[in-house]
Amino acid sequence: MRRADKRAELVAAALKARQMAVAPYSKFQVGAALLTDKGEIITGANVESASYGLTCCAERVALFKGLTEGFKKYVAVAVVARAPGTPMPCGACRQLLSEYAPDAKVWTADSKFPKKIKEFTVRELLPAAFLDVPS
């Protein structure tokens, strides 16, 4: 499958995952989809809590799900939400992606315009990740 096709497929999976978001407080629904090196797609959606610190982003839900299902290598992650200019992973998600998917492409899209995809690398989003601290 061509790269553009895989990118569109992953964004579509994130768009579908977004429908499962549990966002009763912010109403900000986010979907994420991770692509493993084996071609598997693992999805996640954000889950909110009345105690906002307990809220978990879609990217982390997908990553935790993938890791606990035995997947260790990821080549891409797509993040979709209704956000002009596209949604961006938060700092916590950037840190975890830098630890568990450092070489992954990051594709983001506004759910209203899912064919307008922006592309980044994890390293671009967090160039000096905590694990890069000299010993």
Task: Write a short abstract of this structure.
This protein has helices spanning 3-18, 58-68, 91-100, 122-125; strands spanning 30-36, 41-45, 74-81, 105-110, 117-121. The chain is an alpha+beta fold and 135 residues long.
Question: Which term fits the overall shape?
Answer: globular
- How far the N terminus sits from the C terminus, by CA atoms, comes to 41 Å
Q: Point out poorly predicted stretches.
A: none
Which structural category fits the helices and strands? alpha+beta
Number of helices: 4
Briefly note the CATH topology name. Answer: Cytidine Deaminase, domain 2
Mean pLDDT: 94
CATH class: Alpha Beta
The succession of helices and strands, N to C, reads: HEEHEHEEH
Give the DSSP E fraction (strand runs of 2 or more residues): 15-25%
Tell me the Rg in angstroms.
14 Å
**DSSP helix fraction:** 25-40%
The CATH superfamily turns out to be Cytidine Deaminase, domain 2
Q: Main sheet, how many strands, which sense, barrel?
A: 5 strands, mixed
Order of the strands making up the biggest sheet: 2-1-3-4-5
Number of domains: 1
Number of strands: 5
CATH architecture: 3-Layer(aba) Sandwich
Describe the structure in your own words.
There is one protein chain. With 135 residues, this protein is α+β, with helices and mostly antiparallel strands. It has one domain: Cytidine Deaminase, domain 2, CATH 3.40.140.10. Helix content is 30%, strand content 23%. The chain has helices at 3-18, 58-68, 91-100, 122-125; strands spanning 30-36, 41-45, 74-81, 105-110, 117-121. It has a 5-stranded mixed sheet. Strand 4 and strand 5 form a beta hairpin. The radius of gyration is 14 Å and the shape is globular. The protein starts with a helix and ends in a 10-residue tail after the last helix.
